[in-house]
Design goal:
Blueprint (H helix, E strand, L loop, with lengths): L17 H14 L12 H8 L3 H13 L3 E4 L3 E4 L8 H21 L4 H20 L1
Antiparallel strand pairs: 1-2
Helix pairs in contact: 1-3, 2-3
């Protein structure tokens, strides 16, 4: 059994279809060099169980990634990441993140959080993520 954690974070109430969340996260993991050419994606069953989602949803995401040429199906092994096509400059990736962050900040303000509380929460998240990646 693969000891590595599932690299996906699913938010059912986000308004973004779950299969799309998976596709977007695979793209982000490749662009962020967390997934490299030759890496295997976690099995459909493993992702579905870990995220408590329907395996057909994971399968749909993986099939779309295969159709896009991002991964290939390897008999008996699963889905392997293909050589990334150079897309997305640093500025483009920063803009994608800025859009996501703007939505999160807007929601935090709706929840009544002050700017200092938002910064504190983001700092805690960054620190937690840094700790998890060094393990």
């Amino acid at each position: 059994m693969d000891p590595r954690p599932i690299p996906f974070e699913i938010h059912p109430s986000s308004g973004v279809p779950i299969y799309r969340q998976l596709i977007d996260q695979v793209h982000a993991l490749i662009l962020g060099e967390k997934l490299a050419e030759g890496d295997l994606l976690p099995s459909v069953r493993r992702v579905a169980q870990a995220a408590s989602i329907n395996p057909m949803t994971v399968s749909k995401a993986y099939s779309r990634l295969e159709a896009e040429g991002v991964v290939e199906r390897v008999r008996g092994q699963g889905m392997r990441v293909l050589k990334p096509v150079p897309t997305g400059t640093l500025l483009e990736r920063q803009e994608q993140f800025r859009q996501l962050a703007a939505l999160a900040i807007h929601r935090a303000q709706q929840l009544g959080l002050a700017d200092s509380e938002i910064r504190e929460t983001l700092n805690r998240l960054l620190n937690k993520t840094a700790e998890e990646t060094t393990r």
